[in-house]
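lol ok so funny story. i was supposed to be doing the assay writeup but got distracted and ended up predicting the structure for this chain instead. priorities right. anyway since i did it might as well share w the group, maybe its usefull for someone
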Amino acid sequence: MKTVESAVWFSAKIKAIRAEAGRDAAKFEELCKEPVLAREASEQFPDDPLLYQQLQSALENEIILARCGLFLADSAFWDEL
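and the output, tada:
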């Protein structure tokens, strides 16, 4: 992530996917594979060609956990820092 805006987008996408999928591993995986993510990253951040790959790397780790029934959640603790 090259800019603050791309980091905010990255974080927001992960939060949105987690919220929409809930505790459904199949839905989580489906949302992570949406082609719109790649398109959105390249359109909004053309100077950051690795942003989509970084997002996919983070999501792949969460997919592995979700398949095992472990779902990460955003903690209010981090919002308070």
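The two ends are 21 Å apart (CA to CA). The first helix runs from residue 4 to 21.
back to the writeup now i swear
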